[in-house]
What does this fold into?
Amino acid sequence: MIAAEAKPLSQEIVDEIIARHPDKTGDVLSVLEEIQDRHPLKYLPEATYDDVAQKMGVSRSQVLSVITFYSFFNLKPQGRHTVTVCRGTACHTRGSKPLLDGLKAKAGFHEDDEEGGSATSFTTPDFGLTIRTVACFGQCALAPVAAIDHEIYGHVSDIKLRKLVAAIDGGKGS
Amino acid sequence: MRIHDLDGLHDIRRTGMMKLLPGKPRIGVGMGTCGMGNGAREVLQALGQALKDQNVDAQVTPVGCFGFCAAEPLVNIHIPGFPLVVLGRVTPDDAAAIVSSIARNRPPLEKAICKIEEWDHLTGHVMYGRGLAEVPEWNEIPFFKGQKKIVLRNCGLINPEDIEEYVAVGGYHAFYQATQKPNANEIIEEVKKSKLRGRGGAGYPTGVKWDLLRKAQSDQKYIICNADEGDPGAYMNRNEIESDPHMLIEGMLIGAFAMGATEGIVYLRAEYPLAVQRLKHAVAEAREFGLIGEHIFGTTFSFDIKLIEGAGAFVCGEETAMIESLEGRAGRPRPRPPFPAQKGLWGRPTNINNVETWCNIPVIIARGGSWFAEIGTTNSSGTKVFSLVGKINNTGLVELPLGTPLKNVIYDIGQGSPGGKHVKAVQSGGPSGGCIPAANFDVAIDYESLAQIGAIMGSGGMVVMDEENCMVDVARYFIEFTHSESCGKCVPCRAGLDQALRILKKITAGGAEESDIADLEELGQMIKEMSLCGLGQTAPNPVLTTLRYFRREYEEHLRAHRCRAGVCEKLYLSPCENSCPLHMRIPQFLELTRRGQLAEAAELIWLDNPLPGSTGRICQHPCESQCRRNTVDASVNMREVHRFISDQVFDGPLLAEIKARLKAHRMAPTGKKIAIVGAGPSGLAAAFYLTLLGHDVTIFEAREEAGGMLLYSLPQYRLPKKMLRQELDVIESLGVKFRFNQKLGAGVSLDVLEAENDAVFLATGTWKAMTAGITGEESPSVWHAIHFLEQVAREEPTNIGKKVVVIGGGNAAVDSARTALRLGCEVTIAYRRERHDMPAIPEEVIDAEAEGVKLMFLVSPQRVVTDKDSRVSGIELMRTKLGDFDLDGRRRPVSTGEMTIVPCDNIILAIGERPDAEPLRRCGIHVRENDTAAADWVTYETNRPRVFAGGDLVTGASNVSSTMATGKDAARAIDGILTGQNRFAELLQTFEVPQVVPEEPEGGARNVSRELTPEQRRTSFEEAMLGLTQAKAEAECSRCLRCDVHELATVKE
It folds into this structure.
């Protein structure tokens, strides 16, 4: 089922979104944001962004440059559910790093922190779950903060987060 | 609906006022994202339901956030005739009671935190009502005291999704006024007069910037609102937009009119969905009312606002990068000039201001520039909103007149750090800012003062850090952030930050060299000076300020491979181990004991700490405050288990085996001779390890027996001499030689020791009592605690009277008091601060009280009162009260002028001890101002090569485990210097301990030691605490959460 979803977005949807942004090439960001949001796996397949480049009259390199520059855009399919751990400063002072590390370890991701360590998104092979970080949710008074599918949870502990993740999809999510 | 003129505006104002003061109760629920994250939505629903259930007629409205995030969800209630009451931490369960109180026409006060009788919206005014004397006015409670709401003037009081409520409090009137000026230049003059400076961080004068755009010639000009609040740890702009979006729109309208712009863009970060939604709604409302669009107010002025969502790139907060982004490209900054005012978006003149700058504009126009300039300081006018977060009790949004001292924010408004922990620093201004240490908390918050100490105002993030935050880790965190957010266009920033990050990672992993710090500093300067844009130019600030103010922490990582905060995980085993001065492997001895491997557990504790019986009884146990089990119920009673193991050895058949096991660790003789001066805990610890390392060790002791303060100062009921002597016997059995009655400078000379030995370790302690400086203290009836305790320890008569007052609050004070009590005295402890400030072990204070010791707080000794025969008859104390906070966050005791005399016939001064520095000075050892010996803090070597010093002699009076730790660390260093090898680690044999973490907390409630009753205790010097039973000790071990086991993640195939 997942594999079936990992395909370019339909031409009609792309056309419809571009049509709502008639004016300037300045709308490349907004168009890509909307398109990614419409994709069931929340990413931008190559064929889709090629399509955008052509239809908006900007070069393919410019589109790709935008996609790779902003952390919001994904070139890889994302999981059906996303846990986002905030890495803002207030969250950091209240222990969001161990929280993230523990969550990743539980989901089976191991990465040597001293080398590389720049990846900000991890998706399970079955596309069930993506773990990612955000620079700051601006919910600093609730630190540490995590979001599950855009629902914000404050004062999260490792035990609380583990329970929240286990409860996704009524326990089937992870 | 369209407003054409002032009359139209007034009509809407009247309609809006009917909503704010509807003539019936109004309930406002704070519906910012923070409030909703704390359950405000559920509260709103529950209130609506309760109104229906109880058939009460009241209006329920979502409002924005009033700023006190720590008390969310906030609900405000206004019943006609009463003040508006703000309730905090409201839950859905409170709804029924709130509504039934409203039904009785009484404001519900159960959760009231403050009230508002009238509110000056600055552009308008609302009178709620007077009364409710029992509830403090909003600006009387600590969180709001000293705040001044200009930007946040409407936040939390009006419905952000209702333009009519905004108009009701004078909204869009300033804009109308502006459009009626014959010359738009007048607006710019007003803004100039206000001296408003850009609130995004750089602080450029807004009026001057506006003037540039006004003068620029073009058929098309743009204004942009920078709402890409990218600083992690800051959320002022989110709340400003969520709570009062129209003030932003009005500010932009006025700016557009003044500068002649026809199009405005709000660049808002996508991480703020509610702000996006509210602003979209507000723009649509403004358009519907004719405030945005063509020919506004029937003039020639037309203006439209477009909202663009950012896509998660910090650098886009930089104005030229933002323009790039708006033109559909990656947000890489452009060199300036040309400045945006000359050539900005799409090559047209453009002005960019931060959200908060725009939000100030309507007030400046309504009240006048000079009114605004009166607030704050001469060069930093007005207020600034700060997000006060991190390790602080009162988190929230704080709006302050500029120039307010930082310590007011941290201690008065913020009420310090949770759990009474010591606030260490504040990071102001996000990744571009700096870490301000507590010692600088008297700095005024304004652009210039903050810049002077290496920080910046920035956009207003204030992240508070306490003793559990590592400053090197903080620097690494920020560099990781700026490194990943660097656009990569210029080399200094891209490659420089990469190098800086590599070094910081090395330091936090304990693998760095001393030259790395100099490299880091040099890199920081280079990146600052040579980067293209603000990101790179400011990115090194967190590193440079932490290096400036917290260099010792860097050195601890580098030289001692320690992270005292317990953050850098490669440098510690577990929080308890890390907080233990001796770094005992606590989780491991707990696990060994739990599994019944007592001999192994004993061997382990002895190797980590050669005086386990003493420390198991009297240690200050810092481990407990760090124990993660505290988050479940209560910390593991580690010290008692430690004692249990030691008691099992001394009271059972294991002693010979343990001695043999320890002896087996002794390395082959090195032929090196070491002299130790002082047989206190520090000297004993050094001797133990140096002997095991194969050296020939002799301890020279001034008194006639070993043990130092443990023997001569610790009362028997806490530490029986018999037990201590058994411990000393173990040390002696390993081959340590003792020579008694040998005093440095009297019986033994440093020159001789130096000549006859390969190294000398001085640990002569702090045996000189400090004086109080009060009249009459030289009386023979006034004791110094150490002299009194030594007299009792030697079982010599004290002839102490019936009534005793002990001055002080440390362990020596409590020991003296309980000792005097046992000698039959009536005892009072008089301490100058409050109970929770007492440095003594809290359990000791509780026990003392139970035995009958009286405690007096907030009193300061003034003079010894004597009778006509010159006998002490009392002590005169001055009663104090708590005044201002000092920089450490403690309130200074200040005089109340009230004096009191406590009758007594003896006084014991327990106000501290210091070393006797004379013998050292005579030997040419450098001595510090407080008479302690100057020694390197890692090697403990003094200015005389091969002469080392440790213990209280170096640190000043401390406690048993800290002083032993210096002996242990010195032994490591001495061995390293004498042998040129690092052999110490070999000594600390590892033990096989299963690496299994309990799935759920086990072991039940905390187990405590058996003890004698207070009645039994108060007349006897018998040991008061009897230790854990075997069953309880084992149960206690199973309570450990095993923080020493680092869950190893597996790589998925």
